[in-house]
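Data availability (excerpt). The following record was deposited with the supplementary files.
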Amino acid sequence: MKVLITGANGFIGQALFQALQGNNIAVRASVRDATTSHLACSSQSEVMAIGDIGPKTDWSRSLTGVSCVVHCAARTHVMHETEADTLTAYRGVNVDGTRCLAEQSARSGVKRLVFLSSIHVNGMATDEVGCFAYDDTPQPHESYAVSKWEAEQVLLEVVEKTGLEVVIVRPPLVYGPGVKGNFLRLLQLVGRGIWLPLGAVRNQRSLVGLDNLIDVLVRCIDHPNAPGSIFLVSDGHDISTPALIQALARAMNKPARLLPVPLWMMRLAGRVTGKSNELKRLTGSLRVDINHTRETLCWSPPVSVDEGLKKTVEWYKSTC
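Predicted structure:
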């Protein structure tokens, strides 16, 4: 078996590349530019440049001899977006690029494609007691989530035409060594001892540690029950934002500085500063039900939330 990982220079792609090498699985890493790759190869692995991903990408060399593709590459959230039409920009990579890869994979004799989607296909939030499930009616809102949902539909079309096996994995927020974005900013704020106005938040959020997500992706590569399924994944233990901050502070041996600011004041501040969406992610709930994943794949999260957060903090401290 040989596995192709797209987006292998990314946060998740790098970890998957290392995990497959550790399991003595032959793996090919697809990256935009091989000169910027820091992947360490073994005798059973290689790195191949593919350039930009879109409707005209030539995957033929990368797919030679491959039996499974794990498609991690995507246009993700852009902090300082310059595109006027964001949905079109996302579609070019995430929808058209995925169709191109899937069709060429089927023609090249690839048996299975594992697609890394997003829980935001289900929606942006749940209440404190509700959960997203694998068979919920999708309700994507933002351009990124819409493009991921459309990519899933494209894959199902390819399945109907070619018989390619497709597995869809929808993770919530992923954290772990190398994390970026909002989680890294939270690490920085806690590490600096900044007072955070989140003490009155009473939410519940599902997170997934990088090790747990990689464990599911590896299992999906050859598990006989995986094709045709949508898998939601998490650490199996939901956590509030204040509890998350307290856990990070404990791991850093620092005090958790939380101010009990009323939510209505925070929402007003979010509207004034243009940070309403970021605030919703910190104060709202988003819970996922992973029972289908547990039962179908005979899987349980191998790493606890506390272990995953401790490992992330150790990485963060090593970079400071």
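Summary of structural features: The first strand starts at residue 2 and ends at 6.
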